[in-house]
Amino acid sequence: MIVTEHQDSDFYQALTERNLLRQYDLLTNFIEIGIRQGPTAIDKYMLWSLNHAAVSGICQFGGRFREEPIYVGGHRPPHFSDVPEPMDRFISFIHENWHNQTATQLAAYALWRLNWIHPFIEGNGRTARAVCYYLLCVHNGTLLPGNKIVPERIRENRQPYYDALRQVDASWEAGDLEPAPMETYLAGVLAAQLRNDD
User: Fold this and answer.
1) Which listed residue, 7, 123, 156, 193, has the most CB atoms within 10 A of its CB?
2) How distant is the alpha carbon of residue 171 from its chain centre?
3) Class for domain 9-66+78-195, per CATH?
């Protein structure tokens, strides 16, 4: 059972907004678990749950890695048969670099890498933004204060986010990962949350 945007645009948008609220509630639970259990609390099951919450009722294949090709503008994500390995590497990178990278560095990497892999049929951006915020909070050991959190701020003004993604993509394609554009962007968005900017 799904509702498509073409079938009923207003209802589709309403479901999407309700799903985001449910995803944020689930994310809060995961952040609390992560604070108690440490860096290895993040795993593929958490990612699947966050994705399922984001696309429930609007995508039949939520909460599992895609098994078909997908195209995102000019970016061609890995073939679906190759998705599990880079996802394992992604999670391993977070675990292995927890103590030698800052919260913003890890969150910026996650935000870029999940979008680059595009492991799900639908809701990749929503899931990447949730994981990014999870890492910011858990690495800092607290639910960060602010009335409007990082994922909401990114959603409201996407162009700088897209620009940072493209810059990191270009460095990756050139053979050298340079996440600084995403780190700089994310640091500014987080600062706005902590200042409670409108």
Assistant:
1) 123
2) 20
3) mainly alpha
Distance, CA of 186 to CA of 183 (rounded, Å): 5
Q: Rounded to whole angstroms, what are the CA distances from 61 to 31, 75, 119? A: 25, 21, 11
Triad 178, 183, 184: Cα angle to 5°:
110
Q: Can 79 be counted among the known catalytic residues?
A: no
Angstrom distance (rounded) from CA 131 to CA 106? 10
For the chain, what is the radius of gyration of the CA atoms? 16
What are the backbone dihedrals phi and psi of residue 98, each rounded to the nearest 5 degrees, phi first? -55, -40
Q: What is the pLDDT of residues 147-193, one digit of tens each?
A: 999 999 999 999 999 999 999 999 999 999 999 999 999 999 999 99
Catalytic residue among 6, 79, 118, 139: 118
Q: What is the mean pLDDT of the chain?
A: 95
